[in-house]
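Subject: Sanity check before I submit

Could someone independently write out the structure tokens for this chain? I want to compare against mine line by line before I put it in a report. The sequence has 70 residues.
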Amino acid sequence: VTGDVPQIAFSPKYRRQGLATTLFQKLIEHTQSDEIRIINADAEYPAVEKFLKIFKIDKEIGQYEMILEL
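---
Independent answer below. Compare away.
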């Protein structure tokens, strides 16, 4: 287990039930990495920001959407 989380999202009907917290606790227990990295998370969404603070995950860079018109 690398510790990289490509994306995390839950359908609204499954939010606020501790599912993401449980997943991250298990990831921390089983990862072979020295760090956990979330590759794609909407840090502007208040619930995501709160979740990241609980696990002391710092925002290092922002997300950019890149479009090349042809």
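---
OP: Matches mine. For the report I'm noting this point. The first helix runs from residue 19 to 30.
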